[in-house]
Amino acid sequence: MQKFSVDKSGFYGEFGGAYIPEILHRCVTELQDSYLEILESDAFREEFNRLLRDYVGRPSPLYLSGYLSARHGCRVYLKREDLNHTGAHKINNTIGQILVAKQLGKSRIIAETGAGQHGVATATVCALMQMECIVYMGKTDVERQAVNVRKMEMLGATVVPVTSGNMTLKDATNEAIRDWCCNPANTHYIIGSTVGPHPYPDMVARLQSVISEEIGRQLMEKENRPSPDYLVACVGGGSNAAGTIYHFLAEERVKIVLAEAGGKGIHSGESAATIQIGTEGIIHGCKTLVMQTEDGQITEPYSISAGLDYPGIGPIHAHLAKTRRAKVVAVNDDEALRAGLALTRNEGIIPALESAHAIAALDKIRFNQGDLVVLTLSGRGDKDLETYFKINDIIE
């Protein structure tokens, strides 16, 4: 896996690094110097694994979808991260990071959130550990994800609506970084995806790698083989995708398909397909692909899915795309909505709109009859019901 792993400076090939204001240098350096030692310690692994098992409910099931298998003429398994406590993969990362924060002696947690799942997961672990929690969320997302906002508040978190910019995930992240700059000594910033300055992309990928670790074991049990032919996941910042592929990166026979949000079309001006239309730049502390103007001003992304409308991409995914280790497809809003509703009608599983992008991506791949496909269902669609209701009413 060496060519796809991070180097000592936090780069995956030419993407990554830590481009940070001077006031955060001490915090980020402290994390860089300690995170691997903490994550690899016996005490951390014991507590992390215990909480994943007894609190989160892992391992999450690997479910053979009769509907998707028949539709695509191969065996399609769903990795059911939607069945985790809090309803998504995000809890894997927040459990790990709050244990790191405790080890570093931090007493205050901040986070950003778009769809609200990372915010809920952060508020949940802060309630578990009885730590102060502040979650920054764009005002646009506060309005379209009202249930998750109420959940966070019920869990004891303070939700701060952000009114700058497009009032979505990028702007929430900007405000969280400003908070961190003002409170560096006692605050740990739990970043929710494989973005931000090193070591966050690597740390989040390692914490989410429990997904691919389980996939390998579960395929041995169900199919008597340790790896699939295809791995499929949606990608915004890229945490569930990184976790899905982590232990299979060195196996070049395993094909990787990433589904990003095409919005209303990648050339419509209303899209979040960063890998398709982005260029190299720096966003939120790392060098990666960024949606930006010719003079480097970040452009506003759009997606019907609040968890995918980020104008950057995790540096590991930028590297995988550039080296062609991963195939990246853009899925537009209508394709995702119809794929999500079809899974609901045919399997009784309501996927998050983020996950629906991955399901729709299956239609863009030509599979062979004997192929074994694993698609990570990153979250459940409770938060997206109002959006689903609208298209369901139109169809009926």
UniProtKB/TrEMBL annotation:
UniProt catalytic activity: (1S,2R)-1-C-(indol-3-yl)glycerol 3-phosphate + L-serine = D-glyceraldehyde 3-phosphate + L-tryptophan + H2O
EC nos: 4.2.1.20
Domain Tryptophan synthase beta chain-like PALP, residue spans: 57-379
Biochemical pathway: Amino-acid biosynthesis; L-tryptophan biosynthesis; L-tryptophan from chorismate: step 5/5
Gene Ontology terms for molecular function: tryptophan synthase activity
Broad enzyme group: lyase
Keywords associated with the record: Amino-acid biosynthesis, Aromatic amino acid biosynthesis, Lyase, Pyridoxal phosphate, Tryptophan biosynthesis
GO cellular component: cytoplasm
Modified residue annotations for N6-(pyridoxal phosphate)lysine: K90
Membership in a protein family: Belongs to the TrpB family.
Assembly and oligomerization: Tetramer of two alpha and two beta chains.
Function (record text): The beta subunit is responsible for the synthesis of L-tryptophan from indole and L-serine.
The name this protein goes by in its record: Tryptophan synthase beta chain
Organism whose genome encodes this protein: Petrimonas mucosa
Gene name of this polypeptide: trpB
